[in-house]
Design brief:
Layout: H1 4-22, H2 29-42, H3 62-88, H4 96-101, H5 103-109, H6 112-131, H7 137-145, H8 148-157, H9 161-177, H10 185-194, H11 204-214, H12 217-235, H13 242-250, E1 281-282, E2 285-286, H14 287-308, H15 312-328, H16 339-349, H17 356-374
Antiparallel strand pairs: 1-2
Helix pairs in contact: 1-6, 1-8, 2-3, 6-7, 6-8, 6-9, 8-17, 9-10, 10-12, 14-15, 15-16, 16-17
Length: 379
Amino acid sequence: MKKLKPVFFIFFAALLLRLIFLFPQYSGDVKNHLVWANSFLQYPVGFYSRHFPGFNDANYPSLTIYFFAISRFIYLSVTSLFSYLNHLLPVFPSFFVPLFEHENMQLGFMKLPAIFADLGIGIFLLKIFQKLKYRKPLLITILFLFNPAILYVSSVWGQIESLTTFFLIVSLYCAYFAQRKHFYLSIFFFAFAALTKQTALWFTPFYIFLWYKELNPKDWLEGIISSLTLFVFSYLPFGLNPLSAAANYLSTLSGSSDYVSDAAYNFWWFFYPTPTSDSVRLGIFTIRQISIALLITILLITLIYLRNKYSKKNFFMALFLWSLAVFFLQTRVHERHLAPALVFGLLSFSANPYWWLSYFTLSTYHFLNLFLTLKIPFI
């Protein structure tokens, strides 16, 4: 029991810190999430064909819309309960009612999926560090839980990068550490990640390689069937059949812009002013074509290396290096897309404390990119 107390305290402190930053400020993106949640709760059928004047059209997959809707439902339930108790009990603190009706609180509830995903990532990182017998696994986990960049994305900004990364980590855990009969869940939870945000697909080649190494044909079959079932049923409430759902999902894969960098301080950002279309030419090729060629080259070299020297450590390293590659070399990326590297980086190097300075440097770089882009708090 004594061993559980520090873990509980640390995770509670991480949650409390995120809740403190939940209310004061937010990004305009969270207003989109609130509008989408209200629309889904009112009538989900036809959701993806709707336009929201003054807000963006819904461009997230099905499961993320469910998480937003659940957050909104919880908010409405809590405010209704507080209003009821305020009329029923004279001793009930009345200031709760206007506090929870405040716009900041309404938008703050939309950050809950990412906040709890942060904690979920921390739990699975701790479990993996313990399985691998790393020294001081809880201390390494603290580097993630209290990382200002991680906290800024989820609790201040209200973005959902942690939600996608959480399911990627669960998928990784299932492939390496689950019971034999549950290995297929690695494929299933990867589908979960892809149905929260399309950026999960960046890691598809590596996870396919992982499943090739760790799963048997029965695992593959169960994983693919369960994933396809998840995909089909997740879109049914929207009134979309499997073909329409696939078309809807594929239509969002090109990204929300065609810039060489969408506020990301990547390689191209240093040479081209924002906004610059990635159709601009460098010699006979466009920047987009060059970036794709570079990424394919890195991908092939990394997979060949893994084929010859496969191990958990090398696979974690490959995920980390690929996270850096897709952020720094790909076009159309956002500043927050560096977030997975901070998770896979801990898996790669946390056994060596001499690497921690590099981790702090990368985290600082990521945080500055986030803060200088959003400029919250407004100072």
